[in-house]
């Protein structure tokens, strides 16, 4: 009788500990994960809509926007040139920009 009572008490303590762990640790953690997944889902939908809008644009319009962006970046680089100590840094930046924009134009 003492043994069965000891087993029952042990079983009760283990079950109570497990239930407390689930309620106070696992549930809040799962709630946080669910909230994060919802945020991720909304962000994914936003990105998909942005991509759809980009592909819906006429290619000529997109190329014109890329060209305008290239010119803006080059003007900005010219304004920043006095801050650069070495002319090679500026030339390297321009080469990288040319490479990036040539790849962007080739993709169309």
Automatic annotation (TrEMBL):
Keywords: Membrane, Transmembrane, Transmembrane helix. The chain crosses the membrane at residues 12-30. It comes from the Eukaryota. PANTHER family: MITOCHONDRIAL PHOSPHATE CARRIER PROTEIN. This is Uncharacterized protein.
